[in-house]
Structure formats: structure tokens, C-alpha cells
Amino acid sequence: MSAPVPDPDPRNTTRPPGGVPPGETPAGESSTGSGAGPYRPLTRGWGKGPLVLICLVALACALFFLAYAIMLNV
Asked: What three-state secondary structure class fits 70?
């Protein structure tokens, strides 16, 4: 743990009296966790419809570029 950093301007009176000492973290900001909770694995994967659609679009693009490459070489 590092030593507390002193206030560079001792005339700074923005802190309320009896508040958090300089260099300390207030209680509301001391958490370092993500707050996401326990890990729960996914119970479902991709839907069949979107997966088939993505595969068909990828296949159509591949066939288009293959045909374009063949047309350039003829």
C-alpha cells in the first residue's frame, strides 16, 4: 500500500470537516470488482435461422468473387 499523498494546497477547504482523510478512498469507491455476479454459462447458442442466413450470404459472396475472378482470366 502506498503512503497517503498530501494535499498540494493546504488552503484547499473543499473537503467537509471530519470527512475522508487525504489519500484515502471513500467507501463508495473502494470496490474493485466488476459487479457482474457469478458466471453462468450460456444455455442457448445461435438460432438456426440467422446461422443459415449468414452461411448463405457468405457462400453467395464467395461464388460471386470466384465467378468474377474467372471472368477476368478469360
From this structure: helix
CB 43 within 8 A of CB 62: no
Distance CA(12)–CA(19), nearest Å, equals: 14
The CA-based angle 22-26-29, given to 5 degrees, is 130
Q: Which residue has the higher pLDDT, 58 or 27?
A: 58
Place of cell 454459462: 41
Residue 33: pLDDT band with limits 50, 70, 90: low
- Report the predicted TM-score, pTM, of the whole model to 2 decimal places: 0.41
DSSP-assigned letter for residue 24: P
Dihedral of CA 35/37/39/45: which sign?
A: negative
Which value, in Å, is the radius of gyration of the alpha carbons in the chain? 30
Instruction: Return the amino acid letter for 36.
Output: A
